[in-house]
Amino acid sequence: xxxxxxxxxxxxxxxxxxxxxxxxxxxxxxxxxxxxxxxxxxxxxxxxxxxxxxxxxxxxxxxxxxxxxxxxxxxxxxxxxxxxxxxxxxxxxxxxxxxxxxxxxxxxxxxxxxxxxxx
Length: 119
Prior knowledge:
The protein is about 10% helix and about 35% strand.
């Protein structure tokens, strides 16, 4: 249903370094960027190699706030081994094979890695 999601971040370079590392474990890479230090309108797009962006982070230094409780983004993991941060484990209340973990980005956005299949 979704084409992509965008998140506002207060420091584009710090957030890009975080997302580069966090998403690499799931097989996602930086597919484009528009980082120009000292300028506004900067952004970075992430997706699968050879594809378009599914997540964009956009520099919004003024008034940046993460959404409140209940909001998070969940990223598909290729296997259980890729879900390795934030106390990974089965979440049987979501399904028999729902294996997930959470991390929080530098601006407080909650991110989940999910592998939902029998191995």
